[in-house]
Specification:
about 375 residues; Butyryl-CoA Dehydrogenase, subunit A, domain 2; 3 domains; three-stranded mixed sheet; 9 strands; binds coenzyme a persulfide
Length: about 375
């Protein structure tokens, strides 16, 4: 759903110019220094990028899912590290508070998230719990008006920058599954929280992840999202459903960038006395990429529109995440192939994208987890 087409077009133009004029020229610097310059972070705040999904009542832009997807198509056309910086605040770090939080919890955090003053992070994954999210062991034990939290969270995106965590922890040790989990809002400055070293990753330099360790960390009982124990797993799943459409949209944006770079290279590059763009085997790679990109874009927009209408989109969100991230991987591979030897060389930039996009098939639920979600829902619907 697009609320005001004219305003949306103006905002998309602003994002598109920002990507072209500011972010793209800084891609190499970000990769070399493993950091996004402060001046760029400030511009992102000014543009409202941290508050894309926060309701206007709390100072955000309140984009619909369709609008958010269109913005991600644009923001995707540069190094994924830039999107990653706003990604957890716009998505998985804030949406639990928005979806299931009390009014007081929303008032306390959403305005500061929308302005970019505080970065939100989503702490679900643990050393022993990745795809099997219901098996988390981080424990939250009630003690008067507080919970005492102990455990380790792993690979937490933006943890080194976070001001607040949406933390999933087990409040009922007798329930080893999804029902024993609660979601907490945890101020990152709470005593008892420490951070591991930044992880060294395959790609996405400039985006940071690390372990977050909770040792006798005391969190007020008033910080359980929605003040209800045992609802945390469902909150996490709802947050991830939305996040998966968002990731699908980003994959479309990055794939468009890579395909565009490959097309320009194929037009410029001469071999056997002609430009390689005129060779049919190169054309096949361009055409397959274009068609798959179009399919992913259409899927994302369809799922986003359905979500805006209030439909159940669990299956569609998983389809988007699976198809768009796999498509993005294939486009990255073909782009490197079209660049040939240059595709393997750092200075041409395409090898960096090839490494950067590998993560999309893994985080927020691997391709295999999406397959399980899709097929389970099919079987359930057919046998209900
Ligand atoms: N929305 C709302 N509720 C949901 C839900 C969703 N999308 N998916 C599951 N639930 C509910 C179920 O209805 C069930 O509730 P009841 O017990 O009341 O029936 C409960 O949650 C448990 O669901 P389920 O039995 O399906 O859980 P599983 O342990 O089988 O796990 C998967 C389900 C595999 C889908 C889940 O663990 C998952 O998404 N894993 C990947 C995690 C991930 O993406 N990690 C990335 C880390 S963040 S970057």
């Amino acid at each position: 759903m697009i609320r005001d087409q004219e305003m949306m077009n103006a905002f998309l133009d602003t994002v598109s110019s920002f990507v072209r004029d500011t972010l793209v020229p800084n891609e190499d610097l970000v990769a070399e220094t493993d950091a996004i310059p402060e001046s760029i972070v400030a511009q992102m705040k000014d543009m409202g990028l941290f508050g894309l999904t926060v309701p206007e009542a709390y100072g955000g832009l309140e984009l619909t899912m369709e609008e958010e997807s269109l913005v991600m198509f644009e923001l995707g056309k540069t190094s994924p590290a830039f999107r990653s910086l706003i990604g957890t605040t716009v998505g998985i770090g804030s949406q639990g508070i928005l979806m299931d939080g009390t009014e007081e919890q929303k008032q306390a955090w959403l305005p500061r998230l929308a302005s970019g003053e505080v970065i939100a992070s989503f702490a679900l994954t643990e050393p022993g719990s990745g795809s099997d999210a219901a098996s988390i062991r981080t424990a939250a034990v009630r003690d008067g008006d507080e919970y005492v939290i102990n455990g380790t969270k792993r690979f937490i995106t933006n943890a080194p920058h976070a001001g607040v965590f949406t933390l999933m922890a087990r409040t009922n040790p007798d329930d080893k599954g999804a029902g024993g989990i609660s979601a907490f809002i945890v101020d990152a400055r709470t005593p008892g929280i420490s951070f591991g070293k930044n992880d060294r990753k395959m790609g996405q330099r400039g985006a940071h992840t690390c372990d977050v360790i909770f040792e006798d960390c005391r969190v007020p009982a008033a910080n359980i999202i929605g003040l209800q124990e045992g609802r945390g797993f469902k909150t996490a799943m709802k947050v991830l459903d939305k996040g998966r459409i968002h990731i699908g949209a980003i994959c479309v944006g990055v794939a468009e960038r890579m395909l565009n770079d490959a097309l320009n290279y194929a037009i410029e590059r001469q071999q056997f006395g002609q430009r390689i763009a005129d060779f049919q085997l190169v054309q096949a790679m361009l055409a397959d990429s274009k068609a798959e990109l179009y399919a992913a874009r259409s899927m994302v927009l369809d799922a986003a529109r359905r979500r805006d209408l209030g439909e159940d989109i669990v299956t569609e969100a998983a389809c988007c995440k699976m198809y768009a991230s796999e498509m993005c991987g294939r486009v990255a591979d073909r782009a490197v192939q079209i660049f040939g030897g240059a595709g393997y060389m750092t200075e041409y930039g395409i090898e960096r994208f090839y490494r950067d996009v590998r993560l999309f098939r893994i985080y927020e639920g691997t391709t295999q987890i999406q397959q399980i979600i899709i097929a389970r829902n099919m079987v359930r619907a057919a046998t209900a």
